[in-house]
Amino acid sequence: MFNKKVSINSPRNLLFLFEILSLFLLLVSQWNNIEKTIYYIWIGLILIIYISNYLLNKISSGDNYIFLIVTMLMSIGIIMIYRIDPNLGMKQLLWLSGGIAVFYLTYFAIKLIRGWDRWITLYIGASYFLFIMTFLLGTRKYGAINWINIGGISFQPAEITKILVIFIIASYYNKPDVFKKYRYSDYILMGIIYSFIALLFLQRDLGTALIFYGIFLFVQFIYEEKRKLILYNIGLSSIGAILGYVLFDHVKIRIQTWIDPWSFIDNKGYQITQSLFAIAEGGFFGTGLGLGHPEFIPLAYTDFIFSAICEEMGIFTGIGIIMLFLILVYRGFKIALNQNNKFYKILAIGVSLLFGIQSIIILGGVLKLLPLTGITLPFVSYGGSSILSSFIALGILQVSSEDINYEGEEVVE
Amino acid sequence: MYNLISILFKYIFIIIIYLFIFSIIRLIYLDIKSINTITLEGNAYLKLINRRDSLPYKVKEHYSIDDEITMGRYSDNDIFIQDPFVSKRHFKIVEDEGAYYLEDLDSANGTYVNNERIEDVVKLSNGDIIRVGNIEFLFVDRG
Amino acid sequence: MNRENKRIILILIALCICFTGLIGYMSYFQVFRAEKIKANSYNKRLWINEERILRGSIMDRNGNVLVYSEERDGAIQRFYKYGNLYSHIIGYSHREYGKSGLELIYNNALLNINENSAIDEIINIVAPTTVGNNIELTIDHGTQERARNLLQGRKGAIVAMNPKTGEIYAMVSMPDFNVNRLRDDWGTISEDVNSPLLNRATQGLYTPGSVFKVITAAAVLNTPGVETNYNCEGSTTIDGYSFSDYQNTAHGNLDLNQALIKSCNTYFTTKAVVVGEDKLRKTAEGFMFNSNIPFDLPVKNSTYPKGNLETTELAASGIGQGKVLTTPLNMVLTASAIANNGEIVKPILVKNVVSTNGKIIKSNRTETLSVAVDSLKASAIKEMMIGVVQTGTGSNASIRNVQVAGKTGTAENPSGKSHAWFIGFAPANDPKIAISVVLEEEGSTGGRSAAPIARDLIIYGLNNIKF
Fold it and tell me: Does the CB of A1 have a partner CB in chain B at under 8 Å?
């Protein structure tokens, strides 16, 4: 029926080729101690990716690029993580499979359940609940208290809060008139978002705070009728930033090591300088997988994965990753532009902003173009909560790319 | 041995990644070009539900409906699709006082609206799915 | 298009700019910054090669090994035979304190690493090198040792080179440090106000004082129609500012020859104004001021002030005061230019890079950098400089049987005691060695303190260097 000619240029096949080749490389490198299960899982994941890309075209009438782009990003990421630490690579393989499952789950849940735009109180409540949980059960990791440990599984609640914040903002701006009957509703929203940001400051999770702020500011810029509020927002945040710099040592250190890491190369500036060494060492084509020294980079599998990729796969691959994020964000905004349902439109904007801002912050950070804040590179970095929340966000974007044929109560199937 | 392969592969990987990016940009470009060729000025339009690149013949993503639109295999139709399932003149949609009506033009294989084969004329409402053979259109009325 | 969508597109554009900025910055980083960052000693990758490749030796012009590596107790160690003597030119390669000098600049050659092409890379992978290349210097170990002894206990620098080939025979900067005791001394030497880590010979910028008069003399000869006679009264006032001669001595009637021999300040300040700003600056630039001297070690550019100078400043420049600053390396090139018919040749420190099987991989050849003056004027100035040593301020540099040409300088130093200078070359009829000596904040005249040092080194060099 669908006798479409198979073209070598078809991105799906290119992705498949990329994965098969990396599996081959893995096979060569571990020729002596072959552990079969690894290959089964690898092959399994490759098939899942291939089939998913194929099936999604059939299931969803929406965008068929974003999932492709994301699977490419995650393939590059998993290769690097596996190369750095096979044990983490194994775990990441499972997380990714879980992530794809969560993607489909989110897709169907968002699509089939109506009324996502009416539960703003629930989202706000859940966010505060997650914050409280973090403070009660949180453990400190890399200087930030943003992990909770339940039954041996570490989990970063802020990753889920990211999604909730997008829902809160979307619910509010979807029907601002409904909220207008409460006085100062717009100030209350701003207050809530700012309270999240303040809580993140206390947890020392500056990167996530920046993401929240960016998403809020940009959506406000698009939808807020009272333009004054945007100025208030910018003014307040500038004051907040200055206060943060004066009050918190950890903020001060970030700025210092950003301006001149070389003077603190032994201690505070160690991470960023090691990252710069790795990127510089890679050159345009990299040293080749397995031939560089990403083991010298601290946290090479999460925050600094981009540096590790640049070292072994070259600046060209690094630029490729940036371009993939660029296309992903572009598609997200395109989806938002084409969406007529306002709620889903704002969701699409929120998710695109999330991907865009998060990747810019961490990429700029490891390049020393921006102050370094410890966040993950979406879909590429190692980390269960990060992978899952990114795939939830992608699921939302996938739904938003379809024609939503209902307004509020009116449901037409 | 591994080292050699690794060095070779780093170039191959970069080539693949860039081909991948290029092919996606090309597809997106084709996509945008097809959208820009029509202006969705009117209130109502038909949107193709099938993936365009999964169909072996030329078809557009959107067709706007002004006051009348016809569909069939012949090229004098507004929507002409060279599919063996499609009759020479298959169906037409006409506007009347703000409402849109679909009329089957005695096609061989019939026209389905929301999976019900229609006999002669049926009033369309926003979100209806019109199916001819394997091709599905979504009817959108923003009026 | 409605307002909402317009704003969405605006934000999309902003994000696109950010991403493109990232790509642009990455490319910039890779092209312009990466090399320097990679060389930082905290980059552990640098030391990985060090563990498996036997770093090459460094030898002087006669094959004396100065630095070598050897495997002891299963680890490769670097041995510096002369702790202080080569601390500025060879430098050090140290795990904690990084690399400096030739050890830094010739690092890849010493380790025999090529990073130029994909093919080199594959060759490195298939047949990794285990032995680095050796480096042959133009330095004469004996002359270097003598030069250091002469400077012992003082601050300053000596550079001796062959004016025709550019080969550096000795390059000493004092105070120096012991590369074998970095771990013990680092705290002291890195904070010492006398900056022992600084290579004064190439990176010390000094007011040249009267040695600059060689260049002003060249400018006078280069300007047709300048009256070269002058009546010196011991002091002169230019634009309200008074310039006087050493101890206010009135030299009487002078021509250019006599003026240089007696190092007459009033003569050269007056003539600098006559010659004009443009001509003097162009002549100084012919002597490598304001331009980069290509060398195996990092060099600071000498500066001659640009832009509209006030007349007093121009006059001060004529006697090497004011904003004129130079390096000892630049001044040895100035002496060499006069010795070498006006041509300045590129200074060479590394003669050859030689692989273990004796193949010469890279060698530095003599190159002309600039023609400072034409040969007629060069020989005229040479005659004057011979006069300086025979009968003038430089008589302490004169040697029996060998004709020495030279010029002394006592540079006023606004931040301390004056610097003592001597530049010159010998033998005057067939120059084999050119020399520049600077004694920082010596507080004595160049003729009294710098000229005898030059004399001693020239005698040693002429007797011992294999030219």
Answer: yes
